[in-house]
Amino acid sequence: xxxxxxxxxxxxxxxxxxxxxxxxxxxxxxxxxxxxxxxxxxxxxxxxxxxxxxxxxxxxxxxxxxxxxxxxxxxxxxxxxxxxxxxxxxxxxxxxxxxxxxxxxxxxxxxxxxxxxxxxxxxxxxxxxxxxxxxxxxxxxxxxxxxxxxxxxxxxxxxxxxxxxxxxxxxxxxxxxxxxxxxxxxxxxxxxxxxxxxxxxxxxxxxxxxxxxxxxxxxxxxxxxxxxxxxxxxxxxxxxxxxxxxxxxxxxxxxxxxxxxxxxxxxxxxxxxxxxxxxxxxxxxxxxxxxxxxxxxxxxxxxxxxxxxxxxxxxxxxxxxxxxxxxxxxxxxxxxxxxxxxxxxxxxxxxxxxxxxxxxxxxxxxxxxxxxxxxxxxxxxxxxxxxxxxxxxxxxxxxxxxxxxxxxxxxxxxxxxxxxxxxxxxxxxxxxxxxxxxxxxxxxxxxxxxxxxxxxxxxx
Length: 460
Known about the structure:
This protein is α+β, with helices and mostly antiparallel strands. It has helices spanning 7-15, 39-49, 80-83, 95-107, 150-153, 176-189, 191-217, 220-226, 252-262, 266-284, 327-342, 351-354, 361-372, 441-459; strands at residues 3-4, 23-31, 58-61, 71-74, 84-93, 117-125, 129-137, 243-251, 295-304, 310-320, 346-349, 382-388, 395-396, 399-407, 416-423, 426-434. The termini are far apart.
């Protein structure tokens, strides 16, 4: 089966060659006391369910002479054992060792000649735990019609749900001559394709990212925000391929208490906690902080419903008042800003996505990153993605998932991204930072706990 990449897919595909790999990561920690989830079992589960995410068996073929956008083609030599890999920590493996492994795996680019995803079963964790780390290219997952593989490998019970048998036969791969003819035909019958070709040739990949994504998220919020001057910040610096990864785990009930006490949203409470942590992080670096100091966050955020699920992804810029010493006033500023943006926000359809069975956050994070790519590089200091998940235990091959941490990619000149996912009564933070620009990313996670205590004290 052959399908041309969308303009945004093609832009993300081109960005992978730069210092900013744009794969979406997901780290799941599982209880595996009886050893029921081993490598062979994971292979079996994924292989039986790949038909639910057909793009995971497709690779990208470029069109000769760049006459058109690349196309998706079935990989006739698809080898699932290449994509699902086995790794182990020296027993008893610590969480810190796991996070260092995730950072190294996140730093590695995907093989562009094969389907753009990898999955690692990490064994050897202490307390009879194992981990599954998955990374999928942003061109592979659009969060709506093309979903992340985490959607299909998790179950709501220990007994895996039955799936239909799938006999996959790869389609015939087109020849270079056929791709050239198709591209030339499209240029003749579709005038817009010629304009796009010129733009891609003259402006390069960066121009393509901006133009294709802006068409997706054009709204009043974008126009208004572009006119603002982004506050200077150590969060904006040239970055390398190398990463650091750190996590934090908080109780969802605590955010509910803050919400009830101050009549705000859970999202507002989360942003207030992040703001407090970033304030103290700036102090720890000796950065000048005054009462007017702020950091501008791009917040492609999944909107919570009463059931703890998301109905849409909303994208807006919000100034985090890191200079304000009073946590209650910080929360008030954030709540006011998000209320204003809620009346004019840009939304990206996700209703189809959240109705599907499985675990949606990774796909929602992918959708959020796509939304974020429509903003100018200097329009914000920090990317924060938030995707609510189910509040009941989930399982992989009978092994219960204990924790789930998102790994959002870094955009150009963005030294830190913060991803959040709520699951089974907790809120999980995954902090992905550049190895050189953010050597103290673990300091931010420690300060998240302090900020949460400060907000709870204010609530009491």
